[in-house]
Amino acid sequence: MGRIPYWNISYGILIDAFAIPFVALFVYGMYRWWKLIRQGRARIRPDFPGKLGPIYLRALFTKGILGTKIYKKPYTGIAHGCLFWGMVLLFIGTALVFLNVLFGVPVFNGIFNRWFMSFTLDLAGLAALGGLLFLLIRRGFFSPERLTVPKERNGFISIVILLGLILVTGFLAEAARIAYNGTDPGAFVGNWLAQNTPLAHLAAGSITPDVIAGTWFPPLFGDTQGWLVFHQYMWWMHGLLALAFIAYIPYSPLVHVVLAPVNAALADPLPGPKMGVMDFSSFEDEEAEDTPPLGAAKLTDFTYKRLIDYTTCLWCGRCHEVCPAAQTGKTLSPKGVMVTLAEYLQQGKLEDESLVDAVSSDAVFSCTTCAACMEACPVCINQPKTIMKLRQHLIMERSEIPELMGKAHSSLELRQHPFFGTGAGQKDWRKDLEVPIFEAGKTEYLLWIGCSVTYEERAQKIAREMVNILDHAGVSYGILEEARCTGDPAKQMGNEFLFNELAEQNIEEFSELGVKKIITLCPHCYNSFVRHYSKLGGVYEVTPHSVFIKVLMESGKLNLTKSTKTICYHDPCYLGRRNNILDEPREVVSSIGELVEMPRNRRESFCCGGGGGNYWAEEEGTRINQVRTREALDTNADVIATACPFCLLMITDGSKKFTEEQKAFDIAELVSMQLKDD
Amino acid sequence: MHIAVLAKVVPDYEVPAGDFELSDNRAHSRYTRMMGLYDENAIETGVQLKEKYSASLTIISYGAEDDIPVLRKAIAMGAEKLVLVTGQSDDASVIAANLKMAIDNLGDVDLILAGQQSADMDRGVVHGTLAEMLGLTFIPQVSKIESENGGWKISQLTETGSRDLQFNGKGVFSITSIPENVPRIPAVRAIFAAKKKPVEKVAEVESNAMGIEEVSVEIPTMDSVCEFLPVEDVGETVKTLLTKLREERYL
Ligand code: SF4
Ligand code: SF4
């Protein structure tokens, strides 16, 4: 005979009726969030394959529903997975019971009853309980620092107690039912409890008040029918607590259960913060009544997506743990930023312009825009975009910028390059070298030199060696007569206006010259061309030099010898994490020596400290470049290779603390050294 | 209160020595033009005074019309208008006479600020000459200005130390560079607003040049000489290095 739903429960249907106010509370709570979130700014998104309106379907399924990013930390990931999926299965089981009661859906018969309603649901409950216990023990005894700095979230214990009670009462109600009705095949937890606890005595009718007094059972049952009352107690407690849990979701940190999939579904899967470009036309327009805010001074200046970010944040601190600024004693903690904004949102301070000061401008300018935080975040939050929006406000509306960065900014504004006080002239890098100038209609590739390679002596070698490689391979290339900057440093410092000005000048020159294909030496230039110039009308085929070298190697145009050197490759953030170019530089390195990896590599690579305009920063605390260089030197590799002039300069500087040897080289320098004479 | 700041547009003053060249005895025209280094400090000081004492602020420049886009930056920093006397003279007396004409035209100027010295000629004489012509007091190398009891409390900062002064009436101050007057980056809205603010162009007036004739102009040549100093004791080596740099007049 199948199981009888609501067995031993009079008016069991009431639990379904009670569900209505609890669900209404849930809906109301979510509506309150929605009301807050919709005070942000809507945004228009370009179409993207695999999108349904604003929803990225693949991301919804993988990062949102499956929660794939949470498993990057395997233990906590599995614990969360057990808890979440256990609860999901139990919820499905409960919904099936409901369908059985209302519509007679036959869920309590045959194989389905045994293997799903009994076995699977017991397993789900056990997994959820196990996950919960793991999280409780870890929080209680081995709490990682990331959970507590700069702030710990309240509410964990009440959630654990609530979930624990739901699971335990569920099992006890099941065990009491089994103890009376006999073994339920498949319900292995309920069967075990029924046979190995005082419930067995209850069922056998052998229990007396004396027996009960000698056990851990509450002295609830004065007669042999006590088990019936016990079952009823457990059943109602279980049901009501489960409903309370649902109602509690929007009013507690549990809100992430609903919002994490939403956030993942709305997050553009292109890597990096995706800053886009700003349109300043309304500022020129004399008729325009309203001009948009430049950056963000208050919560309502952010988009819906950002406000969902702050609501979804788990305060888990995974971002804090990987942030180069936070890990080297700077004021910035990406978790701290999210927490501050979440608190403002929760307190309804949507128009409060003290927000930037609450985050602090020191913190805002310490961000290297490396995007390690985004990579680590299990719920697809875009922390750097928030930080950059605050930075845009500081510089474009309030004219605030740290002094050294301000000097670089002024130089960029005045001289179109940020290297103030440079001792290098425009043409110094190509002294005694024959370098062709790009000729309209004749030259195929524009070799884009960029500002750091032009004006920083150590980086000049990159261009010289790349010229050697291109000559060796017989590539049709040319450079611009005048050295230029893409404007990326302005963008990173938060001045989108200056970036647009510089980019538009370059686009105009490229159009005059008919430039179609570009080789870049700097990942920041590459990122600007592919991500931002295209939005300003400059669409080119752009190849970073590391990829171009790999293509030349594959087509047999480079005759290389392999050395016995061990080479440790440092991933530049703007090439690796931000543009997914991870394999090509490694293939190049492997063809000229033996590739060695640092513990933090590929998408988990640690920044050199030079991004976000912080090449021009007076760092507080430990220097980021020294931390990264130490990590590279600890591999005992003969040389450190990279594919970014800023990384090269930062690591070269960082290594001075540890060795007098020149350890850091650009990939082009290393390849050029291994070129065989034909 | 009406404050006028004198600003000069000059060729890039940070061109690396190895890349610097002359044409017609002046910096080559290929170099980017920008506001003088100390002039920006003077503008920043003017803007701060304007904000503090609700003054009005005018920028006055002597130079070419092509310099207007550069001078708009000064307006974006916080000035209300720009007066440009169009002219090409390098003569301190001619420039001062033309600036005087612009100041006289404004009529109600209480305070005239100028950068300590221009970034191209490096003379530091125009403001003194102007003060003489206007019959006003000239105070050089001013780092701080505060209004006090209807007059001015002024700090003067020189290489050898600082002095606090008190002064009543109208005056011409040359402004030196201190951390507090690092020029601000104009806010983007201010840049757009500056495009709409008035620019008054005034033709230069004839005046007598100083009795000086420029015979020739030379710029330092780059010379690389390498000398190794022993480093048994770093402190001693640094002392030796300092002495040598002083002897060679690099410091
Ligand atoms: S982008 Fe990098 S530096 Fe900025 S907050 Fe994230 S991890 Fe920290
Ligand atoms: S932003 Fe993401 S990684 Fe950082 S604390 Fe919030 S949920 Fe965790």
Automatic annotation (TrEMBL), chain A:
<dbReference type="InterPro" id="IPR017900">
    <property type="entry name" value="4Fe4S_Fe_S_CS"/>
</dbReference>
<dbReference type="InterPro" id="IPR051460">
    <property type="entry name" value="HdrC_iron-sulfur_subunit"/>
</dbReference>
<feature type="domain" description="4Fe-4S ferredoxin-type">
    <location>
        <begin position="357"/>
        <end position="386"/>
    </location>
</feature>
<keyword id="KW-0408">Iron</keyword>
<feature type="domain" description="4Fe-4S ferredoxin-type">
    <location>
        <begin position="304"/>
        <end position="335"/>
    </location>
</feature>
<feature type="transmembrane region" description="Helical">
    <location>
        <begin position="82"/>
        <end position="103"/>
    </location>
</feature>
<dbReference type="GO" id="GO:0046872">
    <property type="term" value="F:metal ion binding"/>
</dbReference>
<feature type="transmembrane region" description="Helical">
    <location>
        <begin position="156"/>
        <end position="180"/>
    </location>
</feature>
<dbReference type="GO" id="GO:0016491">
    <property type="term" value="F:oxidoreductase activity"/>
</dbReference>
<feature type="transmembrane region" description="Helical">
    <location>
        <begin position="6"/>
        <end position="31"/>
    </location>
</feature>
<dbReference type="Pfam" id="PF13237">
    <property type="entry name" value="Fer4_10"/>
</dbReference>
<dbReference type="InterPro" id="IPR036197">
    <property type="entry name" value="NarG-like_sf"/>
</dbReference>
<keyword id="KW-0472">Membrane</keyword>
<dbReference type="InterPro" id="IPR017896">
    <property type="entry name" value="4Fe4S_Fe-S-bd"/>
</dbReference>
<keyword id="KW-0812">Transmembrane</keyword>
<dbReference type="Pfam" id="PF02754">
    <property type="entry name" value="CCG"/>
</dbReference>
<feature type="transmembrane region" description="Helical">
    <location>
        <begin position="233"/>
        <end position="251"/>
    </location>
</feature>
<dbReference type="InterPro" id="IPR004017">
    <property type="entry name" value="Cys_rich_dom"/>
</dbReference>
<keyword id="KW-0411">Iron-sulfur</keyword>
<feature type="transmembrane region" description="Helical">
    <location>
        <begin position="200"/>
        <end position="221"/>
    </location>
</feature>
<dbReference type="InterPro" id="IPR009051">
    <property type="entry name" value="Helical_ferredxn"/>
</dbReference>
<dbReference type="GO" id="GO:0051539">
    <property type="term" value="F:4 iron, 4 sulfur cluster binding"/>
</dbReference>
<feature type="transmembrane region" description="Helical">
    <location>
        <begin position="115"/>
        <end position="136"/>
    </location>
</feature>
<protein>
    <submittedName>
        <fullName>ETF:quinone oxidoreductase</fullName>
    </submittedName>
</protein>
<keyword id="KW-0004">4Fe-4S</keyword>
<keyword id="KW-0479">Metal-binding</keyword>
<keyword id="KW-0560">Oxidoreductase</keyword>
<keyword id="KW-1133">Transmembrane helix</keyword>
<dbReference type="GO" id="GO:0005886">
    <property type="term" value="C:plasma membrane"/>
</dbReference>
